[in-house]
Amino acid sequence: MSLQSLYDLPAPAKLNLFLHVVGRRADGYHLLQSPFVLIDWADTLHFERRADGKLLRHDLGPALPDDDLCLRAARALQAASGTVGGADISIRKHVPSGAGMGGGSSDAATTLLALNRLWGLHWPKSRLAQIGLRLGADVPFFVHGCNAFVEGVGESLRPMAWPRQHYAVVKPPAALPTSEIFGHPALKRDTDPVIVSGSPEEAGHSGVPAEWVQKFVGGFGHNDLQPPAEDRCPEVAQAARWLEARYGNSRMTGSGSAVFSRVGADEPSQATDVAAGFENLPPHWVGRMCCSLAIHPLAGWAD
What we know:
This protein has 303 residues and is α+β, with helices and mostly antiparallel strands. Helix content is 30%, strand content 26%. It has 2 domains: 156 residues, Ribosomal Protein S5, domain 2 (2-Layer Sandwich), CATH 3.30.230.10; 126 residues, GHMP kinase, C-terminal domain (Alpha-Beta Plaits, 2-Layer Sandwich). The two termini are 22 Å apart.
């Protein structure tokens, strides 16, 4: 009997530990370098097989746009595979939208991984990631499911073994359109590229040499998108100052508007201690203490 449903599937968010814009392609796409780290702030999705070929989304929380990345991912996989199957997709959003945390891209990746299994396609990750890249630059990262040093327009992933870290993450109410940030005249587009020496074979299974991982842990780099975001939305600068005053560091993730701080704790009890006062967020802000994930919970769902 074929699989009929899949429930309680996570779609975790990510943080960009730094984000450097190192150039621009002839087609206008920006070339980036950024360590992506999965965190335990996640949406939850449910999937039920339909025999009529229809793809329907059901919002279990705040209403999403009519044509979100989940539905676009489902349609793309359905068309590419030629399957006659459909699906009811239910989603409970927890990751804030317009935050630079990859929430929509992660939802799309979980959709690709889930429907690949629900429809019995047995496609490898590489094939799913090709569909994902056409949907958004962050989708392949979530499909592959491991922390990675990401380059190009999101298609080049160098896995890295990431130590357990805690992060305080806050998001002010404003949502920043990515296109506006990348189109901002103040955006620096020529940051010197980071040279990660050593091949993946020389570095072991992680793909990134240990000394570079330690630099990332220590707060190396910056986010080239942060100055344009702060110019466009003063609340980003306010969030950065709010976190800086409490944890001594802050940085925007992605194109914003969420900002995070590295927290010096590697045990849950310590993280609880350093979170004291974190609950007193300004009105209408959202935030939480997050822990990095060693691997995506669905990482083993495609070869």
